């Protein structure tokens, strides 16, 4: 029993029920092998419809130009860049779970990492759409890549934060995809080796790259995962830092803020965990994975939401304080007239942001609320609305009334095509997620098996008994000897 | 690669597998490989495998990325098309840190994954012989290579004595070939020893 010695008895089990290795395979591969339920089809069709509406909206924008959107002289970045930052932020939780928690040896990540990483990839895919289609003449998009060309050579400006973004987002997407897929290889091989249908053998045989489970391959796989986690950790911090540089390196009051990088990263993790909660609370119910995504997982993630939400709250207050303390009239105007003044045209958005992001997560100080599924689901939606408004507040309220009153645009509202584009990315996201949940193991099989004998419910119970017995035997022998 | 003959023993518990690996090695048999459904820490050392140096490869790819970024940006912004931004220096290293960092990570990650796939001989449509389909589910499969000196009956009895189940012999191709898993492989005659 020496292998179990270092697992704390205080820690609750993270795999519930009486499981063995085969049962884990059965439970997690079942949704792949069964026909999808009516619920799945309904959700999938809604997602595809939304995606179609999105494609239609974007097509209009490509044909008629960005004039299809209500962007104006000072509000050059409206819903599109708001949505871009929002989606990128959501992606961050997946990398935090898969990389940072791996480095910190957090066992509970195994239940949620696969789905969270998938969420990251889909969210970054959605985020990427916005800057690309915002270019207007999208057929020129390849101009962002630095390659010797017949235009000079004319190079992109490597000193520009927008250029850094190109590198950050594309690297982030590539590395997340590789990390996710490397983790999937052994699990796809499990599905392949159980497959009876010909197409399934073909598909999973191809997708698993001929994985055999050799000890040497596992050794390399472990080393690879660890280094990829080590690379992803600074990467994920750099990505939202660079996104915040898009604003922070400008001279626009409300954007020109040194607190942005840590504040953006905390906000990203905050909204990302909220999205993970929304997805997993539904997934565990629909796919019957309650034994793997337990209340314990939900509880721990709510604690992270509470922590990051409070960091975001401190950042909001710091901004306000500095705007007052700095005594820069433009800065002061941006914060106290455009935002904190509830009577100003867009002042309401600031209070939605404050209420959703700072006040509401404080509920999670109470264990009872952290473990309440309905409340957690509701809160996860509230938080994502709040985090959307945070980006809206930063992007729109800073510029719709800035230095020159002659350039003030009183109110910015999106057109139906801007909204359609946003809904379309929801379609893209959920189409991908539904396909993922049907064709891929939603939980990392091999990783759950790896921790089963340390953290599984039945094994912990056995451990408890043995520990008690050995203590009693020892006490008995001790008494005997004296 | 050639077709070889193997004795295959399966284990249900790690606690049985570990001593078995040691006993098999002590008895002088050559373990071809052990296939497991999940990573088992320490098994590589028990089998006498050396540590992987894939991290070193990752480091080399990483500094290649750093060098590529710095030299590429320097070429573009200093030599090929120098632009004057308010008299600021052309060699603006702090502003290049983000791109340099991203390329370092990108090169390192992509390079390592490709190296991993190359070392493990993995790609779509690569097919290998799998000794036990349950070795990706719940069994640990130990595969021992037969040499001219191996007494198969003795080896099987030995494996049984150290806790193996479903012991069998297989003639198998050790390398990989192009193919899909939907097609059954032309069956290899498993009854006769090929090293007669």
Molecular structure report:
The complex is a heterodimer of chains A (482) and B (196). Chain A is mostly helical. Chain A has a single domain (8-143, 153-461), classed as Formate dehydrogenase/DMSO reductase domain (Formate dehydrogenase/DMSO reductase fold, Up-down Bundle), CATH 1.20.1630.10. Chain A is built from 16 helices and no strands. Chain A has helices at 21-33, 38-64, 79-103, 109-134, 161-194, 198-207, 215-248, 260-286, 295-326, 329-339, 347-359, 367-370, 373-399, 416-439, 445-455, 457-481. The longest helix of chain A has 34 residues, at 161-194. The relative contact order of chain A is 0.18. Chain B is α+β, with helices and mostly antiparallel strands and 196 residues long. Chain B folds into 2 domains: 3-51 and 123-178, Alpha-Beta Plaits; 54-119, no CATH class. In chain B, the strands form 2 sheets. A 4-stranded antiparallel sheet of chain B has the order 2-4-1-5, with helices on one face. The longest helix of chain B has 27 residues, at 54-80. The mean pLDDT of chain B is 89. At the A-B interface, helix 1, helix 5, helix 6, helix 7 and helix 15 of A face strand 2, helix 3, helix 4 and strand 3 of B.
Short summary of the structure?
By secondary structure, chain A is mostly helical.
> What is the gyration radius of chain B calculated from CA atoms?
25 Å
Q: How does the overall form of chain B come out from the CA principal axes?
A: elongated
CATH superfamily of chain A: Formate dehydrogenase/DMSO reductase domain
Overall CATH architecture of the largest domain in chain B: 2-Layer Sandwich
Helix content of chain A: over 70%
Can you tell me the CATH class of chain A? Mainly Alpha
- Please state the overall shape of chain A, judged from the principal axes of the Cα atoms: globular
Largest sheet descriptor of chain A: none
Could you list the spans of chain B in which at least 5 consecutive residues all have pLDDT below 50? none
**Rg over CA atoms of chain A:** 25 Å
Secondary structure: helix percent of chain B: 40-55%
The CATH topology of chain A comes to: Formate dehydrogenase/DMSO reductase fold
* Count of all domains of chain A: 1
Quick one: CATH class of the largest domain in chain B?
Answer: Alpha Beta
CATH architecture of chain A: Up-down Bundle
Order of helices and strands of chain B: EHEHHHEEHEE
Largest interface: A-B, 69 and 64 residues
Give the total of domains of chain B.
Answer: 2
Q: How many strand segments of chain B?
A: 6
Q: Can you count the beta strands of chain A?
A: 0
């Amino acid at each position: 029993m020496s292998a179990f010695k270092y697992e704390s008895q205080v820690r609750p089990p993270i795999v519930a029920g009486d499981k063995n290795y085969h049962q884990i395979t059965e439970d997690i591969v079942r949704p792949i092998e069964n026909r999808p339920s009516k619920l799945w089809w309904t959700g999938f069709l809604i997602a595809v419809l939304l995606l179609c509406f999105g494609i239609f909206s974007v097509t209009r924008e490509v044909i008629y130009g960005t004039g299809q959107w209500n962007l104006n002289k000072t509000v050059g970045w409206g819903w599109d860049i708001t949505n871009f930052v929002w989606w990128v932020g959501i992606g961050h939780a997946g990398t935090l779970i898969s990389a940072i928690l791996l480095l910190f040896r957090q066992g509970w990540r195994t239940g949620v990492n696969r789905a969270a990483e998938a969420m990251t990839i889909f969210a970054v895919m959605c985020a990427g759409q916005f800057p690309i289609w915002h270019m207007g003449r999208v057929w020129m998009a390849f101009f962002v890549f630095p390659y010797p060309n017949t235009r000079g050579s004319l190079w992109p400006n490597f000193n520009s934060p927008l250029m850094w973004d190109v590198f950050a987002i594309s690297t982030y997407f590539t590395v997340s995809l590789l990390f996710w897929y490397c983790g999937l290889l052994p699990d796809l091989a499990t599905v392949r080796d159980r497959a009876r249908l010909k197409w399934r053998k073909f598909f999973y045989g191809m997708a698993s790259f001929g994985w055999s489970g050799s000890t040497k391959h596992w050794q390399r796989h472990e080393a690879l995962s660890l280094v990829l986690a080590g690379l992803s950790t600074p990467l994920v911090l750099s990505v939202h830092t660079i996104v915040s540089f898009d604003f922070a390196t400008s001279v626009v009051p409300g954007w020109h803020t040194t607190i942005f990088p840590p504040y953006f990263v905390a906000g990203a993790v905050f909204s990302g965990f909220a999205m993970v909660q929304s997805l997993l609370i539904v997934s565990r119910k629909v796919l019957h994975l309650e034994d793997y995504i337990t209340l314990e997982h939900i509880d721990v993630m709510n604690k992270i939401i509470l922590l990051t939400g409070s960091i975001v709250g401190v950042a909001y207050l710091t901004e306000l304080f500095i705007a007052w303390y700095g005594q820069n009239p433009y800065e002061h105007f941006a914060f106290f007239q455009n935002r904190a003044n509830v009577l100003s045209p867009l002042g309401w958005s600031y209070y939605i942001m404050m209420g959703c992001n700072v006040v509401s997560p404080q509920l999670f100080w109470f264990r009872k609320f952290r473990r309440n599924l309905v409340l957690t689901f509701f809160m996860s939606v509230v938080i994502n609305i709040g985090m959307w408004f945070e980006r809206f507040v930063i992007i729109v309220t800073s510029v719709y009334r800035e230095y020159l009153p002659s350039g003030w645009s009183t109110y910015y509202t999106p057109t139906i095509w801007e909204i359609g584009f946003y809904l379309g990315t929801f379609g893209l996201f959920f189409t991908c997620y539904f396909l993922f949940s049907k064709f891929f193991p939603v939980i990392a099989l091999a990783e759950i098996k790896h921790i089963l004998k340390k953290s599984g419910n039945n094994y912990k119970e056995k451990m408890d008994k043995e520990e008690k017995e050995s203590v009693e035997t020892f006490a008995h022998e001790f008494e005997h000897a004296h | 690669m050639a077709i070889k003959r193997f004795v295959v023993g399966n284990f249900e518990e790690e606690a049985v597998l570990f001593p078995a690996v040691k006993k098999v090695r002590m008895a002088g048999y050559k373990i071809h490989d052990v296939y497991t459904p999940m990573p088992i820490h320490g098994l590589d050392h028990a089998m006498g495998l050396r540590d992987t140096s894939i991290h070193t490869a990752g480091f080399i790819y990483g500094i290649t990325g750093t060098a590529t970024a710095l030299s590429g940006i320097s070429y573009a912004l200093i030599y090929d098309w120098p632009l004057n931004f308010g008299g600021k220096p052309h060699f603006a290293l702090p502003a290049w840190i983000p791109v340099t960092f991203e390329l370092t990570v990108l090169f390192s990650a992509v390079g390592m994954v490709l190296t991993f796939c190359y070392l493990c001989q993995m790609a779509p449509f690569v097919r290998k012989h799998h000794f036990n389909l349950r070795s990706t589910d719940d069994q640990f499969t130990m595969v021992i290579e037969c040499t001219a000196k191996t007494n198969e009956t003795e080896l099987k009895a030995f494996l049984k004595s150290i806790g193996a189940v479903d012991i069998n012999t297989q003639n198998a191709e050790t390398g990989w070939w192009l193919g899909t898993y939907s097609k059954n492989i032309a069956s290899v005659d498993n009854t006769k020893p090929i090293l007669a």
